[in-house]
Amino acid sequence: MAITLAITNQKGGVGKTTTAVNLSAGLAAKGLRVLLVDLDPQANATMGCGIDKLHVPLTVYHLLLETAELTDIRKKADAGFDVIPANRDLAGAEVEMVSLLAREQRLKGALEDIQDQYDLILLDCPPALNLLTLNGLVAADAVLIPMQCEYYALEGLSDLVNTIRMVKKHLNNRIDILGLLRTMVDARSTLSQQVSEQLQKHFGDKVFETVIPRNVRLAEAPSHGIPGVLYDKSSRGAQAYAAFTDELISRCQLSLPETADSAA
Ligand code: ADP
Ligand code: MG
């Protein structure tokens, strides 16, 4: 059985996609079998993995509407993991799904048959608490929340936490918060430190120890279609995501395949 993680925050630009792509690459480099599902019509995760969204005839849209098979939609990223790509078609899916039966269970159903092919399935959610995100939350075992340490960050978090609570009560009783990841952190900023302290007060050890710094190499990598952890391995951003990958492996109690681990 794979562990399925929804990478969610209804705010845009907080590092969801950067985390999804770099974590996928980091886990794959450890020899783990990873599937990344792009649930955002902007398709930044798809592009960030080096897959051209303008040249994918089949996407997660077809998966949700059950008009194509997962095996026909799935692509391979050069970084060693599988991808269910997205493109702008997905923007229409929400409306088209409204009249469908079990519309919030579609992704979960689609992933059921491939559970034993992966160690981890990562879902890169769009910046909204919409039907696509809901599909992610229903399919997930746990939620990973990337966030910037800004003044309004905590306010937005309570909406997300309430949504997760509702999903747990009505749609998916497995779901839990795996953890909160602080992204784009400027270590010198006192605001960052204050928000960090408040986060730790509210969420305790749910807050990952690893902090992702603001680092230009991470921002440059997507335009080359290469995950930041591979684009410039020595950069502070890449090293932070590598450390985060290790922390997540231990938090999820994943065991590594012996050969790949010693090679890594
Ligand atoms: P989201 O998926 O939450 O909308 P992204 O991961 O796309 O957020 O990040 C938003 C923007 O910030 C992107 O241009 C990305 O390249 C950049 N970015 C993300 N993380 C970092 C970081 N740690 N340092 C610098 N830039 C970053
Ligand atoms: Mg994104």
TrEMBL record:
Domain AAA: 4-177
Coiled coil residues, start to end: none
Annotated protein name in UniProt: ParA family protein
Superkingdom to which the source organism belongs: Bacteria
InterPro entries in UniProt: AAA_dom, DNA_Partitioning_ATPase, P-loop_NTPase
